[in-house]
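This section describes the prediction task in plain terms. A model, or a person checking by hand, is given the sequence of a single protein chain and must write out its three-dimensional structure as a string of tokens. No templates, partner chains or ligands are provided. The sample shown here is typical of the held-out split.
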Amino acid sequence: MSSLPAILQPKEDDIQKLLAAEVHIGTTNSDFKMRDYIWKRRPDGVNIINIGKTWEKLVFAARVIVAIENPQDIVVISARPYGQRAVLKFAQYTNTQSIAGRFTPGTFTNQITKQFREPRLVIITDPRVDAQAVKEASYTNIPIIAFCDTDANLKYVDLVIPGNNKSKHSIGLLYWLLAREVLRLRGTISRDSWDVAVDLFFFRDPEEIEKSEETQNAVVTAPTVVYDEPAISTTVEPAFEATTQSWEGVTTAPDAQWGGEANW
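The expected answer:
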């Protein structure tokens, strides 16, 4: 990262985010064209990506994106489910076009289709999953920026951003950093901070969303039990007065005659 000027150097917080999201964790396989971006190989066979090269390519890609005058001429594509939310958020904040989900064949080549587009730049989440978009972009000479893992195929890719493109946190963070750098170079935001949380770019499981909504609704609609307080009597009962009972004039039974033996 020594080739970058001081203003474009990453901060300690940025490096911590890259490590926490496991952007540097590659796969056990490696393509020979990705050899320059691999730092080392762990004993368990996993390749480690050089995050210094990742940051340099992020800044380079942001400069390429800013060079295009009309942001609507940029299309961001992700067929991988983990990258669809990140693509939509990136397009929202940078005012670009997005294709989240299946890429319709002929989008860049068949002018009859309703989805036909003529972009000046294409951003790909995974060259393997988005192979159809890469192929059609190569037919029309459209530059391609791609997030590439250690086993990615770099054919027709013009600008490589090395990083883990199989983790939802890694993909979300890479798009968040790229969007932030684009807005900084455009002058939309300052370099001090960005109030958009990186969590908005992370993939969320629909089942987890439904469960959280159900729990929230259960808490809101829970019946409140009202306990009635016992009524307190305000009347004062008269004090009990002890009376002495007179036994005068009361006749007692005569003493029984117990003479003789009783016949049972």
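For orientation: The longest helix spans residues 168-186.
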